[in-house]
Amino acid sequence: MSTSTAAGSMPAKTYVSIGSIKPLGARLDVPEAGGGCGTSGGEGKASCGSSGGPDDMPAEIWEKVKNHPCYSEEAHHHYARMHVAVAPACNIQCNYCNRKYDCSNESRPGVVSQKLTPEQAVKKVVAVASEIPQMTVLGVAGPGDSLANPKKTFETFRLLQEQAPDIKLCISTNGLALPDYVDEICKYNVDHVTITINMVDPAVGEKIYPWIFWDHRRVTGYEAAKILHERQMLGLEMLTARGVLTKINSVLIPGINDEHLMAVNREVKKRGAFLHNIMPLISEAEHGTHFGLTGQRGPTAQELKAVQDACAGGANLMRHCRQCRADAVGLLGEDRSEEFTLDKIEEMEVVYDLDKRRAYQEKVEVERQAQHAAKQEALAASAAVEVDQDMKVLVAVATKGGGRVNEHFGHVTEFQIFEVSAAEALFVGHRRVDLYCQGGHGDDEQLPSVVKAINDCHAVLVAKIGACPRDELSTAGIEPVDQFSGEFIEKAALDWFNGYRARIAAGEITHQDRGDAQIRQGAFTGGLAAAA
């Protein structure tokens, strides 16, 4: 298996790097990453990452991530992002991708309702930022590849810096053209770059990528995957050397790269990646992708978590990704793009008030500090419960934002999942579900699918829940809990867990694993451990 940049095997094509010219594939001198946290060769505390706070990382890194919803799990409860669809062209083909335009009823990468010019994009960003003051991040994420459309991408950034200099700039790329544009990325102070890296072995890659367009020709098969791999590794190293934070997206494709993603995690950590986001394959046939049409399945929630857990100790993991559309607007998990179509923006009175935005964000930080304090209080109480300090359970949470338990069970379209122990309440993912409450009444036909989605959880925290779903959950061994309505999620989860352990100590209940879901997960994890 090739798990490093393969030097010397490519033709004599060159690229311009930082102050010199190197042959394609030559390894930059990038120091070993300490957890992928640093801005210079990855130096920094190994514990920093998606769930980290100001005590876990250097101050200059914290300033870059504290209000970025994709780079900080904590921030995603409070801050919004926006994508603009200015990059329609792509230089590779992925078997899991089908770019769709003028599409408003799908939520997945590569889908947009309107393609925009840079001028239209900036006008939309300013309008959104004036209405959503917690919107802090603007990304170019497609619907093709940002760096296959460099003029449109960087013109958007140039215009936006003139009108809204406080907004952070991001790009997402497959990495094929990345080494050619690192200087341009730094010129526009783009501090965050996401690279989709699904393999570090071209033999795996040729099952994912049928072709790339490289050096004025279409390249296929193993050669295409090899070129893409080398360019991705080189671009990542160059960004790390320049102090740009990088997030690596990997699509988990069962039977193709599921066991291979541990190697991907190791290799991107070596090259200074800040975060690794392992996402489930979306492969419904109606989306028209190659994988969807050929029956390639996506992973279960348990399989996804098992792969993520198997990567623990490598590059820091992001688990709160929502696989956003290329024109998404709002908090992660919500999409307000329909409120800001071009025709609606024309009717809006747009006033970009920087002071107002900063004042609102200061209020957000006050709420965030309260959330942190509540969590610390609950952790202190947890340490005092001397029952099975090693126990870990999963808890599902119904929330509509703000980091609080504030959603009715019947209104949930996704649950946030936390792994709770005496030491922490760790966000580990989300589960999308069918809406149970339809027109004010519960749809009992939907209930079994909702229960199945969280069948490995010991409890579900909700703002409110009806009698029928309460009984159904209890029968399935999932405790419905509505006593923490309105409270911060981490505190609520820890308080419930402390009570759960106290009931065990009193002999009121016995702790049980969550049945078949846990067994399936354990078997899958065992296979991953053997592969690693």
Summarize the structure.
By secondary structure, the chain is of the alpha/beta class. Helix content is 33%, strand content 16%.
Describe this structure in words.
This protein has 532 residues and is an alpha/beta fold. The chain folds into 2 domains: 14-346, TIM Barrel, CATH 3.20.20; 354-528, Dinitrogenase iron-molybdenum cofactor biosynthesis domain (Nucleotidyltransferase, domain 5). 33% of the residues lie in helices and 16% in strands. It contains 15 helices and 20 strands. It has helices at residues 59-65, 118-131, 150-163, 182-187, 202-205, 221-241, 261-270, 290-294, 301-310, 342-346, 354-383, 447-453, 467-475, 489-505, 515-531, and strands spanning 14-16, 21-23, 80-83, 92-93, 135-140, 168-173, 192-196, 211-214, 217-220, 245-252, 275-280, 317-318, 329-330, 393-397, 414-420, 425-432, 437-438, 441-442, 459-461, 479-481. The strands form 5 sheets. It has an 8-stranded mixed beta sheet. Strands 16-15-14-19-20 form a 5-stranded mixed beta sheet. The radius of gyration is 23 Å and the shape is globular. Mean pLDDT is 79; it is low at 1-49, 101-108 and 515-527.
CATH architecture of the largest domain, please?
Alpha-Beta Barrel
How many beta-strand elements? 20
Oligomeric state of shown chains: single chain
What is the CATH homologous superfamily assignment of the largest domain? Aldolase class I
> How is the largest sheet built, in terms of strand order?
12-11-10-7-6-5-3-13
Relative helix content: 25-40%
How would you characterize the largest beta sheet?
Answer: 8 strands, mixed
Give me the Rg, rounded.
23 Å
Give the integer mean of the pLDDT values. 79
The number of helical runs is 15
- Please indicate the count of domains: 2
Q: The CATH topology of the largest domain, please?
A: TIM Barrel
- Termini separation (Å)? 13 Å
Globular, elongated, flat, extended or rod-shaped: what is the shape?
globular
Q: Given the helix and strand composition, which structural class is it?
A: alpha/beta
Proportion of β residues? Answer: 15-25%
Top-tier CATH class of the largest domain: Alpha Beta
| Low-confidence blocks of residues | 1-49, 101-108, 515-527
